[in-house]
Structure formats: structure tokens, C-alpha cells
Amino acid sequence: MNKRKIINDPVYGFIKVPFDLLYDIIEHPYFQRLRRIKQLGLTHLVYPGAMHTRFQHALGAMHLMSSAVDVLRSKDQSITDVESEAVHAAILLHDIGHGPFSHVLENSLVNGISHEEISLIFMEKLNKEFNGRLEIAISIFKNTYPKKFLHQLVSSQLDMDRLDYLKRDSFFTGVTEGVIGSDRIIKMLDIDNDRLVVESKGIYSIEKFLIARRLMYWQVYLHKTALAAEKMLIHIMQRARELISNGETLFGPPNLLYFLSQQTTVSNFKTENHTLDFFALLDDDDIMSSIKIWTLHSDIILSTLAKGVINRQLCRIELGKEPIDKNRQEAFKEKVLKHYHLNNLEEAAYFVFSDTISNTAYNTKDERINIKYGTGQILDISAASDMLNLTILDKTIEKYYLCYPKSISF
Amino acid sequence: MNKRKIINDPVYGFIKVPFDLLYDIIEHPYFQRLRRIKQLGLTHLVYPGAMHTRFQHALGAMHLMSSAVDVLRSKDQSITDVESEAVHAAILLHDIGHGPFSHVLENSLVNGISHEEISLIFMEKLNKEFNGRLEIAISIFKNTYPKKFLHQLVSSQLDMDRLDYLKRDSFFTGVTEGVIGSDRIIKMLDIDNDRLVVESKGIYSIEKFLIARRLMYWQVYLHKTALAAEKMLIHIMQRARELISNGETLFGPPNLLYFLSQQTTVSNFKTENHTLDFFALLDDDDIMSSIKIWTLHSDIILSTLAKGVINRQLCRIELGKEPIDKNRQEAFKEKVLKHYHLNNLEEAAYFVFSDTISNTAYNTKDERINIKYGTGQILDISAASDMLNLTILDKTIEKYYLCYPKSISF
Amino acid sequence: MNKRKIINDPVYGFIKVPFDLLYDIIEHPYFQRLRRIKQLGLTHLVYPGAMHTRFQHALGAMHLMSSAVDVLRSKDQSITDVESEAVHAAILLHDIGHGPFSHVLENSLVNGISHEEISLIFMEKLNKEFNGRLEIAISIFKNTYPKKFLHQLVSSQLDMDRLDYLKRDSFFTGVTEGVIGSDRIIKMLDIDNDRLVVESKGIYSIEKFLIARRLMYWQVYLHKTALAAEKMLIHIMQRARELISNGETLFGPPNLLYFLSQQTTVSNFKTENHTLDFFALLDDDDIMSSIKIWTLHSDIILSTLAKGVINRQLCRIELGKEPIDKNRQEAFKEKVLKHYHLNNLEEAAYFVFSDTISNTAYNTKDERINIKYGTGQILDISAASDMLNLTILDKTIEKYYLCYPKSISF
Amino acid sequence: MNKRKIINDPVYGFIKVPFDLLYDIIEHPYFQRLRRIKQLGLTHLVYPGAMHTRFQHALGAMHLMSSAVDVLRSKDQSITDVESEAVHAAILLHDIGHGPFSHVLENSLVNGISHEEISLIFMEKLNKEFNGRLEIAISIFKNTYPKKFLHQLVSSQLDMDRLDYLKRDSFFTGVTEGVIGSDRIIKMLDIDNDRLVVESKGIYSIEKFLIARRLMYWQVYLHKTALAAEKMLIHIMQRARELISNGETLFGPPNLLYFLSQQTTVSNFKTENHTLDFFALLDDDDIMSSIKIWTLHSDIILSTLAKGVINRQLCRIELGKEPIDKNRQEAFKEKVLKHYHLNNLEEAAYFVFSDTISNTAYNTKDERINIKYGTGQILDISAASDMLNLTILDKTIEKYYLCYPKSISF
For residue A38, what is the DSSP state? Predict the structure, then answer.
């Protein structure tokens, strides 16, 4: 069979699918589903260009993996063809477990299962379908494969996942300052003692990468308006679940209603076939199509929040370095209680809420980014760089936010 | 009120919203709905980057309009502030009447109404809400405003619509060869006798624009695989309508079922308020969410086609310069009839079908692209260019295609 | 020896030098000299970005050659490693014979020798130095190597030379409309019967390439202001030669004065070692440094023209489709004669002159661009394209120009 | 007179010349001379794309000035048309005093005069020619104009000079990681108490700008190979000066020999007209054309160094955080002394030398980059940023280097 092997990509130009197995994975409905899951959830409400999907990201990360394998082989590091296929498959599938709006609803539809765990469940299902051809890919993904650096290419502080998403997200949001030199970084990769390392002349690129990543966090991933939208979407799901448990009927496709009508845990996925089947049918479109109808629902909480997300009438969000004034928050709740004729302050909490967000530029507790010198010496980036200061880089920056309807602001 | 006026755009960097009225239009739910309508229908099944929406396009066209107004004013052409606001509003709203998947379903959900007519209905509704502030915008859109060149900026062979969509579509598909020099073309615009003209030194840019447009047609807009997907989607809607009229129950949001259960014509829009209301709730998400459930339907035609679109298992399409061999087509239908155990050849026609597609690079029957020389002479581009040949440019290129399931191919 | 093998390039990002031999060629003083020869002569007087050099272009063309070899091999076309090295060397050296300002002074410093002939002389000299390792490269360059398609990659209507220079020149001039999809074109290359062919789905890219090439000709390569500057530079050289032959002393480095003091023909290059040595020392810098001093010379013709080029006080140039009015030209000469107190009309011809320029988009007398269909059929692009018309494409467009000092214009 | 007002630029697309005065400045031979001075000296020996000139940079900085003036006016800051013209003229002329290879030869050809002082001498000369129309521009440049923020736009830690050169240099070197969001930074500019400030939401862009600037320093401006080349060029000039003072004859244009035959100080510029005249004739081309002939000179020091720069046979350079081992350096000198049969160790010092280079990311002793909050509070970037640490940012990073011929390395 003649398999189309070149895919156009606005970020890299052309993406080549280097193995038939990868092509078969891409063609599978599980993978096609990623076309309907936006990479950045509701961020497009702030950056209209950010409509790109997990599908594009997975292909992009696979493309970078090809470069990385080429570079490492050119430095006489051994990667067999079987390992190359496997590490490509692992990166292609690393996000297959994402649900609607990626991270946004990660804990709203299912309970206590991360998207990585669901990815693994999908991979094991696919492995059966593909007669065990994903065995090594799975062991790389789980980091049980002997050559540890292969796992690092899939998941570490300098993996192909990050190198693609930073570049891609800055491309589609138009936040050009987030653009990283993924090409240059990959060209500087090497292996030392089964660990991924970066040649010392790549040190400025790594500094830049860490700073760009941080910039993208504050400017895009934790953008306060997108955050407001995403919290509202989570509250919509919570309210819908509450109404359903109270016996109300909500419009929605059966696959969505399935997850809203019960608590789904990892054991459901493992013991019932239909849980994974339903999950595999679920994507952004179901959420949007349903909450659009919910804008007409008689429940004022559900319909108000749904209108907010659909029509981009978002709540106001205050973000700062100081903890939220709880008295002020309670006063807002009282106002909301009256404004919407709610029953109690618990209901008001759907509209008025606070929490913290945080980001760490470089986590020293994770695997380090190692810099390799001509002398053979290996230093952690935070020691190698004369700019970046470990104590600062490693510090978790925490911010506090308070969200409330614009209509009730003083 | 402090209105956010700068929007990030991956194509142009920043887009400024130059009038408060425009900001109010953008905030309106009618306009926000365009966020959920992909500019290029199902083209993303071929070019995964093509997830961009009518929302982004409308903002982009507005951005180019600002440049055009600046350029024309710098050449001492009179455009008042009121006219500037109006022509910006007109371009912003020119596509507001698009339904799900833009052109794809244009004749599947409503009958005998173009998206331009629906745009006008929306504009008139908005005009009431905005207390008549869209009066001039509407007259420009309808070409009843005295300064005819303003309409040309909104709708002509060199309007801001085309200048944006060619650039944007080539950007997001990654087909870089379609990139046009919209900046340069706009810089060359002028007015002569109330007509838009292009300064003669812009002639090569116009040639390039016409060639790029043609390239985009054959490489993107009429790409055979995307065409197959779109025809399948149309057939899905036809089958759904047929099943509903036969009394079958289909899952779907009420807004979608409304349009599938009846023939909606222009008179419905004009006489019944709820028709426009329902239409304003309808977008890509409803279609996708519904047909995903239809993949499980007992009707083999509906479920097979739905699976095809959802899982990208598209029918084979042959495209060529020769008319389709009707005997071969009939033989395919017979095979399909047997393969799917259908009732008759009419049903087989859901899977096996043929038609023509065509494109004209430059339509001499439309308003011409006029080139203005230093001497004051005005020539049509086809006369001014020593490269482009009127008889070729004006020729409608017609191609024939035949679609059939891959499973039945010999 | 550890050879640096990656070079940064603003057009392609990174350029890899795939063979040690190529690295040694690049390091050679003959090749380093190309750093001092601008790719586009004096075009930077119109497009200030166009400071790029033959050095950059040669590396870029080598980079595309790597892609082309990869693509052809992936289609099971046989190219041995030795052949790959040779075809890379051939493209790297194809322009090594260019003199100052590339094409501009091609017939001013030496007589009756094209830059290709000088390239060959350089290659043969280098071949001796490299102990015959350039033997195959030279035979590919001269088209005496059995596999003819290798020569086509170096020199044909779709060679790596053109694919690089169109892309590079449009990049540095900022004429973005000239950008071609060299990536896509290369991906579509194949070999049929020892000829380079393009797969049929690449047809629109080829159309676009031909149109972009034509646009670059009229907008950049034959830009009338750059043309005026280049003609003035040629006249400066002619006047300098005339003054020297009359016994006047001119400032200049000995290598330049050598070529201005005599007629250098191919036999000088072949019989005298120092001719090539002197030529190898000559570049743009010598011309500019010398004519800057000539701005102070007592000869009014030399100093006026030199000031013109140095200070960008260029003569006026009229360009059109009609032949020049000889009476008007003679009247201009009379005016110039008086204005500058010249001795005769021959001297006035240094300031007032006319000629023609021409361009052919696609030369059917050259080797054709062949399109290969899935059926195996091969068609010339002019037959394969439904847009491009042979009779038009093949037509040589001729334009007439008249140049004269701005000071004497009526 | 009809003045061409749009210039193509590969970085920004189009550059508009907003005032006739600016056009007249650009046309002046003093300004045209900047076409022959490369922005980055000999950096193109490492990054072949870096052929761009001071001419392009000055136009680019002027272009950004237009944006800055527009932005500030849109925020109701008062800038009169006269002031706008003046601040544009000031930025256009800020680098007019640069000599050959920009900073490289700044202290080799003239003594104790910075390029800024020479810029001022040029401006005053031009001011006379333009009948005092540069009066305000000069007072802005000298920071004697009452509105101090205008000077800051021309010269400060966030001036249009830096915003252009970082973007431009990263563009032409191909070091894409140095790309800064100059657009976004300019959009965030405002004035507070006659000081330039940045709106607080621009804080991440400023962080990124400081990091990108630092990256460009270490990766480009202080690249060790370019540094080696530049030091060699300086040594060539020193040796030439020494030989001339010893009565030897060197080839060279009179303008270059003038500066090599004497010590030129600021008083020469002020008291003798011909000093400025000669300087205005001097550029990169004179240096390159002359040292190319010097490659043939009998002085082994001069010819060896000249060959090194011309043919890119550069000395080896070791760069590190540790001071140079003086014994090792002396041993190298002894080896060189023997290798080249030199007369003494002073001569060996032409080939073997060491020094330090340093860079400060953000100089707290200079005018600060001020961040303005919605509350009206103004904070220095180092206080406002939770990432950047004053004690680190402000620290001057010093590195030590040792240069010596490759031929003598152990």
C-alpha cells in the first residue's frame, strides 16, 4: 500500500512520517481524535490564532524526534532502527490520553487519572491491535527500557514534547518572543553515560529556552483571561454534574453524559471496555455543542456560566502577588447571591472564587539539564550558566487570583 | 469603559481595533460565533494547520482595511472618519452569515440563500441593536453608497477579503507558495474616477497575486482529498434529512435538528425570529458532535459516511480533465449496492458520485483589476500584463471527479 | 582535524557541509574570495538589504543539493557517495569564476570569457591542488559525465543554482513575492531516463516558480535604477581604461590596474599563471576603493560618473516598450556636451546612452522542465500546465531604455 | 521634487521616510557612505549572512522611531511635528561617525575620539548645509533638549538603536534566538515625568529583551572567532602604522594612508577641514582592498596577518573564565619568534596576545528601564521582575582570552 508520508506543517514546512507503523498509528481513530482537541484549551479566547490541536503537536514532536535521532547517530551514539521506530511511536502517542480541552478538564470528567495514565491505557490497547509492535515504545514511555536517554527524549526537561509545544504555541498565538531555537538545541544534544546532555556551546540557547518557557507561562499558559474562561468551563461541568445528580435532564451526547453522570476512576477504564470507548469518542466539540444548548437552560448558574464561555463574556480576574482578601471575596459572594437570586453562598461560589497559580522555570528536583564541556566535565545548567541563578530559577513563583462577575464589580 | 484594542495575530503580529463600534461588534455573540466556524471547512483533514476560523479572517481583513484607508488618504483621496468606520464595519461583517464549515454546507442546511444574504440579515438585526450606526456600512456592503470604491474595498477582485484569505490560508496550510504581497498591493492602491486602481509599478505583484490565487485553488481550495471529505459531509446531511423525514430519530442539538427537519428558505429568516436565533447558535461543533454519535447509528449509509469523516477514512477520488465514464460509475454503484446490502442504486449514489469543479483565475465579466499609468492611462490587468493572457486567464478550468469507497476499488 | 561543519544561514537556518572535501574547498582562498563579491552587483543601491554574496549563494546551493540527493535516493535513484561528493563540489564551485560585482563587469575587465569559463579554469587549478579529487565534479560541470541528470542538478532550468538564488535574492531584497517553494519543488524531483523530472502534483509549484522568476527579473534583476547604476559602473571602467591607454595615471591596486591596462583574453589565463593569480585577488572592494579616489580625478567624465556611483547620484533612466527616439537621444548628448564642456559626442555617450534589456520566462530552446505523470507520461511544463502558454512563456520580452544625467533633463 | 519615500527592508518589509528633511539626509554622501560600513565588522567570517550595513541599521532605527512616536502620541503624550522630525533625524544620524568596520577600528585610525563625537562633528557640518534645520536634532542627541524622553528614544537602555540592532543582527546572522519583540516593546512604551517607561504588562518582553541581548553578546558580538579576526585586523593597522613611521611604503588609497601616517585627534577634526573630508571617504572597502595587497608585502608580520584576515586563516583563540597563564603565553611567543624568524618578543606580540572581554546585561549605573504599573507606581525592571536578579544582571561578566597562530599550537 502506498502510504502518504509527507504532511504540510506551518511550523516546520514538511513533516515526514519515517516508519509505516507511525503512519498506521496516525490513521487510527484514537489518534485522529486528537484533531478535535485544541492544544491550548480556551486560550484562543485571548489569542485567536491558538486553534491548533494535539494532533498537530504530536506530529511536530515526532518530527523533532527524527532530527534528534539523526543528530545523536551522527555523533556515533547507537540507536537501532527498532529503537528509532519505538521512540518515534512513543512521542507520537505521549498525549493520546488527553481529553477535551487538554489540561482544562483533566479532573472534571474523570477522577484521579492523569492524561499520562490514560495515554498508557490507549497505548496498551493499540499494542494489542498492532500485535505487540508497540512493546518497546511503551517501555520507553514508562522508562523501563534499558537505554534511559530514549525516555528523556520523550519526557524530561528538554524533551521533544517541550521543544515542539513552545515553538508551536508561540507560533500560533503570535507571541513571537516565545520562539525557541529548537533546531539549534537539538543540534547540540549528545549522550553521556546514558543521559541526554547539551554541548557547552549550546548554553545560551538553553538559557534562552528556559526564559522563553517562563515567558510563555506568564504570557500565554497562565494568561489571566484564559484562566478565567477555563475556570468557568470547569464550574460549568461541576454544575452540570450536580444538576444531573439531582435528576435534571441536560442536553448532551451520550458519551459526555456518561462521564457527567458518574465518577469515573482508573478502575472503570481497566474493568469496563465501554469506558475507554466512550472516552475515545469525547472531544472539544461535545463540550461546546452541549454548553451552547445549556445557555438556554433554566438553571441560572449553568446558563450564565455557559453564556460566558460561549459568548466570551468572562468574569473579571484579579491576579497578584498578595493573598486574596477573604472578606472582600465573601462580600462579592453576597452581592452575587442577591444579584442572581441564588439559594446560598455555595452557589455563589460558582461565580466568585479564588486560588493560586504557580510556575517553576527549572525544577531542580526533576532530572537536570546537563551541560557537557569539551573537557568531559558535566555541569547542571544552573551551575554552568553565569546568568541563571539556581535559587531564582528553582523558586516556584506563586500568584493569587480572585474571579468574580463583571456585573457585580464595585 | 477601557476597551482592549490590540489583538495578537500570527499573520500580521498585532491587529488594532480602530473604532469603538468595531469593538462592540466583535464582542457581540453573533460575531463571537465565527470563532467556531473554520475558514476552510474540512481542509484540515489534508492540511492539519488549517484550523483557523472566520473570526480570525474577519479581523485580518479589517486590519488590511486600515492599511488601505491610510494609503488612500496619503494619496489625497477623501475618506471621512464616518466612512472609514463604516467600511471597517462592512468588512468585519462581510462573512457573518456563514454557517457551519463555511461554504461546505451552504446549501445543505438552508435552501436557496447565500451566506451573503444571511450576512445582510444579521447586519440589519445588528443595525437595530446599534441604533442605526451600521446604516452606511450596510449601504457600502450592498453597493448603494455613492462612493463606489468603498464597496470595492469590501467586495471586488482585489478586495481586503481576498487579500487576507489568500495570505492567511497559505500561512495556516503551510503552502508557502500561496503567500501574496498584500502589503505591497495595498501600497499600490489608488482611486481613479471612483474606481479602485493599482499603480503601474504594482503590475508584477498583481500577476503574482492572480497566479498565487490560482495555485491556492488547485492546491488547497479544490484539493481532491478535502473535496472528498466535504462531499461526504454533504451526503451525511442529506441522509440525515432523509431519515428524519422518514420518522427516524437522530441525536443532535435542537438547533441542528430544526434545520434538518424542514426546508428553510429566505422567507423563514424574514418572517420568523427563531430561524435567525437558531442559525446564530449553529456552528462546526454541532455538526461534529452529532455525526460522531451517528457513527453508531443503525443506518449503514449514515454510519459509514459519518465514520469516514470522523476517522478520516475518506472515499477515493479521481480527478481529471476527462468526463467521467458513466458505465464505470454505474459498475461501482452495483458493487457498493452489494457490498453494503443497500436497497437500490439511489442509496448507492451516497457512496459513488461524480461532478465537476472549476476555477477561473480572473473573471473578465466581474469588475476588472485596473492598472493606472503615470500618464493617467488605465488598462485592465489582462491588457497591461505582457505575461498574462486574457484568453487563458479568463478561461474557466473545469475538472471532473469521481468518488467511490476505497473498499470497492478494483 | 576537527572540521566545523555547520554554518548559520538566515535563509535555511543551518547549512551542513556533508563532505570533508567540500570543507577544504570552502577554506581555500579562491572560495573565500567569494565573500567579497556581492551576488547582485549594485542592486543594493535600490534594495539596501541586497548585500549578500556569492559565498552565501554557493553554500545555499550546496545545501539544496543535499536535499535533492536525499530525495532522489529516497525514490530509489542511484547516486553513489562519490557522485554525491562530486555533484556537491560542482555546485559549490559553479560560480567561482565570477569577478567583481558578479555579472556587472563580466565583459569590462576581461574579454570574451564568460564567468563559467573562468570557473572551469579555477576548478582545474584546484583539481591539481586536490590531487585529482575534483575530476568527477568537473566532468559533471562540463556535462561529460555519463549520468546526465547530475549536470542538470547543477545547471538547467530547474537547477539548485536557480532554486537558491531566487529564494535568497527575494529574501535579502525584501521582495517577498519572489519567494519560491524550493523545498516543495525539490521534494517533487525525480529521474526519468536519466533526465530530471518533476512529479505531476508539483505542477503548480513550477508555474509559481516561473512566475516568481519573471517577477524577480522585472522587479529586481532588471530594476531600472540598479540598471542605471550598473551601466554607469561599466562606463567608469571603460573611461578608466581609455585614460590609462592615453598614459594617464589612475589610483588603484595593481591587480585592478593590470586588467585595465591590457586586454585579457582566455589565452592569457591559459598561458600566464599571474593572470589567474591577479584575478583571484580582485573583488568588489578594489572597484569601490578605487573609484572613490577617482571621484577626485581631474577628468570630468571619470569623476562625475564615479561620484554618481559612490554617492548614489544616478542618471535618469526611461524604460519602455517602444524603441528610443534617436533624435531625442542626440539632443541630450548635445546638452551634455555643453553642460560638461566635453570634447565631442563620443564623450557625451558616456552619459547619454540607450540599449535594450530582455527576459524570457521559460526558454523552450533550453532543456525543458519535464513533468512526470502517474501514468509514466512525460510532458513539458508548457504543455502540462493549463495556465502557462508556451507562446507567451517562450516569448522574449524586450524593453528599451534611455539613460541621461538628471541635471540635463528638460 | 518627487521623493521616493518607501524603501524595502527584509526585516520590516517596508520603511517609510516620513519627512523630506530625512530624505535629504539619506541622499547626502555622508549618509550614503554608511552603505560601505558593515554593521558587524568581521562577524561575517563566522556568520556569513552578516553583511548588513550601518545604512540599513540607521533606516531601521528611524522606522522604529516612527512607531514609537505614533504609540506615544496615541497615549496622549505631546510630540510636535517639529520634534518628531528632529528625533527622527537624530536617530538617523546617531551612527554617522562610525569608521571602517564600525567598532573594530574605532581606536586604530583616530585617537581618543569616539564615534559619537565624530557623529556630532558630522551633524554640525550637515546642520550648516541644511541651514540650521538640524538644530533640535542635535540638542536631542546631546541631551540638552528640554523634553528628556526624546533623547532616551535615541540613546538609553531601551532606545530605537538597540531595538533595531538586536533584531537586525539576529536576522542577518541567522541566530534566531536573538530575535526580540521590538513591536511589542514599542507598543508598551509610555512617558512618565518626562521619562520613558514601559507598561507593566510588557515586563516579560523586557526580560526577554535583556536575555536576548545577553545571548547576542556571547553568541555573536563577542564570538571568539570573530574576535580573533578583529584583533588581527587591529594588529594589521598597528603594524602598517609602524612600517610607515619607519619610512616603508605601503599600498593604499590616500585617505587611508593619511590616517595611518599620523595621529589624528579631535583637534585635527576641529581645526582642519580635510580631516573630516578624508574620514568621510574612508570605509570597509579601503581596508580590504589595501590589506589584500599587503598579503604580498615583504614584512612577514604584515603579510601573515593580512593573509589571515583575507583568506580566513585565523589565529586560534582560547576563551575562559580563568586568567591567562602568562608563562604559557610567553612560551607561545618564543615559538612564534622562531617560527617566523622575528626580531624580538615585541614582534611576537603581534601574533600572541591576551586580553579580557566583558559584558553587563543591564547596567544599573545607566538610566534604568522603568516599569509603570496601573497604580502609577514606577519600578526599575530589576525590582519589578521576579526572575531577573539585580545582583546578577548588573554583574559584569568578564572572560579572558589568549590568541596565537594555529601553526604553533602544541
Answer: B
